[in-house]
Amino acid sequence: MVVIGAGAGGLSVAAGAAQLGLKVVLFEKGEMGGDCLNYGCVPSKALIAAAEAAHQAHAASALGVRVGEVSIDFSKVMAHVHAAIAAIAPNDSQARFEGLGVHVVREAARFISDRIVASDSLRVRARKIIVATGSHAAVPPIPGLDTVPYLTNETLFGLTTLPERLIVLGGGPIGVELGQAFRRLGSEVVIIEANALLGREDPAAAAVVLAQLRADGIEVMTGSKATRITSGPVVEVEADGQTRTVTGSHLLVAVGRSPALSGLDLDKAGVETDRNGIITDKSLRSSNRRVYAVGDAAGRGQFTHLAGAHASLVVRRTIFALPVNADALQTPRITYCDPQLASIGLGESEARAIHGDDLRVEHFDFAENDRAIAEGDTRGFGKLVTTKKGKILGVTLVGRQAGDHIHLWSLVMSAGLKLSQITSMIAPYPTRGEIGKRLAGQWYTPALFSDRTRRLVAILKHFA
Length: 464
Ligand SMILES: Cc1cc2nc3c(=O)[nH]c(=O)nc-3n(C[C@H](O)[C@H](O)[C@H](O)COP(=O)(O)OP(=O)(O)OC[C@H]3O[C@@H](n4cnc5c(N)ncnc54)[C@H](O)[C@@H]3O)c2cc1C
Ligand SMILES: NC(=O)c1ccc[n+]([C@@H]2O[C@H](COP(=O)([O-])OP(=O)(O)OC[C@H]3O[C@@H](n4cnc5c(N)ncnc54)[C@H](O)[C@@H]3O)[C@@H](O)[C@H]2O)c1
Description:
This protein folds into 3 domains: 2-137 and 258-328, FAD/NAD(P)-binding domain (3-Layer(bba) Sandwich), CATH 3.50.50; 145-255, FAD/NAD(P)-binding domain (3-Layer(bba) Sandwich), CATH 3.50.50.60; 339-450, 2-Layer Sandwich (Enolase-like, domain 1). Helices cover 34% and strands 21% of the residues. It is built from 16 helices and 24 strands. A 5-stranded parallel sheet has the order 3-2-1-7-19. A 5-stranded antiparallel sheet has the order 20-21-24-23-22, sandwiched between helices. The chain is globular. It starts with a strand and ends with a helix. Bound molecules: flavin-adenine dinucleotide and nicotinamide-adenine-dinucleotide. Flavin-adenine dinucleotide binds at residues 4-10, 27-30, 34-36, 40-41, 44, 108-109, 132-134, 153, 174, 260, 263-264, 295-297, 302-305, 307, 336.
């Protein structure tokens, strides 16, 4: 087996296949661990941890805790970011994978034919080839952008001084997480978003995040398109037919991701692609029956946990010849801003577009959750969307640590559990996680306390 790319997806396939006794050649042209370890999840969450600590220090006075003046030592913050990468790196290292029996080649790979892959020093004829080359920051064709220096996720974590005024282009998960982190570390931040902030998520949940970003002092411009960029950087922005300029000290481009497929010579292998990535069937197989795609390169979503899920499907399919279905995966999505926004399955409007009136929506505010009250942080809510018969279609949670509380729903949806199984669970008190059981319980409330049930109880009491 040949695996191209040693990120979350490629490493998981390589580890699984090698431990099952296959001969595996793994090509990696950059850092072992790919985007997640080096330029994505790990450094961003380490930066967010520092920003959160600064924010909590400021917020402590509301709970009666006085903290002295809070100041940021940016070089120490960055040292923490790089220490987190270094602590996790051994898991993804060349030495570890060679120890598992993988032949690791630190070179760029490309297709020579439908089953031959080559790098500068090696040529391999493979039975199965897994493309796990990930994605990179999309650079939009905004006039002038190519004439000014700008940051992407690949260069941002190399900063040695805190940006004075950071302009963030794009209000998706990357722009929101990093924009808020830099604001809380002391930068002035402007987020320029062409449409709605976190536009793929429930609008009411995104509004809770938007309110917090503004309370943090971030200037969030929604419905605002960057139309020209000149040095400064100065960004010309169009909104509601008006043009205004935004000036900063640094510019971060976070307007989406493009699959990293250039230089692979996929046409020589007959592998078809579209703008999202390699076109695959439900078993993640491409138009070439020997070639599979996983992770960001497969264009089915961009999450480390999804890349890992793809890897296990590909191992099952290619090694055990078992049927698998990547179309049926239920993938949780979490934006690690504060408050966190976590969701799985369909949002309310998507569900309505598919199921029309055959829909029920349960809503529960953290303001009614005892733990949230005790913590003095009642921002956010949970929303459960089902069919009228109770089939679970999706869940959105927005609030402190919402990401940890979407796990329940990930299990429920992937295992096809019923709402009644959630209500029969004992949820420990007082936890924010109780919101899951409350949403499920609320679904039964109208039927439980209906006139019909009362009439039934009136009859039963004569026999009890
Ligand atoms: C700032 C940021 C924050 C993120 N935060 C999160 C998060 O909190 N949670 C989450 O789930 N996801 C997060 N993501 C997304 C996550 O990083 C990606 O979904 C994940 O890394 C995809 O894994 P992958 O294996 O598909 O690709 P990658 O991790 O990108 O790995 C691909 C590898 O292939 C190599 N490669 C490419 N072409 C070739 C070639 N021709 N030959 C040899 N090697 C090649 C690359 O060098 C790279 O190492 C974040 C992304 C960013 C940018
Ligand atoms: N916590 C996580 O799991 C996490 C964190 C970061 C990234 N990711 C993954 O990486 C993906 C990419 O994130 P992203 O935020 O770069 O992309 P995105 O596509 O999710 O959001 C980009 C935003 O930029 C806006 N935009 C596009 N062109 C613009 C322009 N010219 N001017 C102003 N705004 C413009 C879009 O409207 C969109 O809202 C995510 O969708 C996610 O799958 C995950």
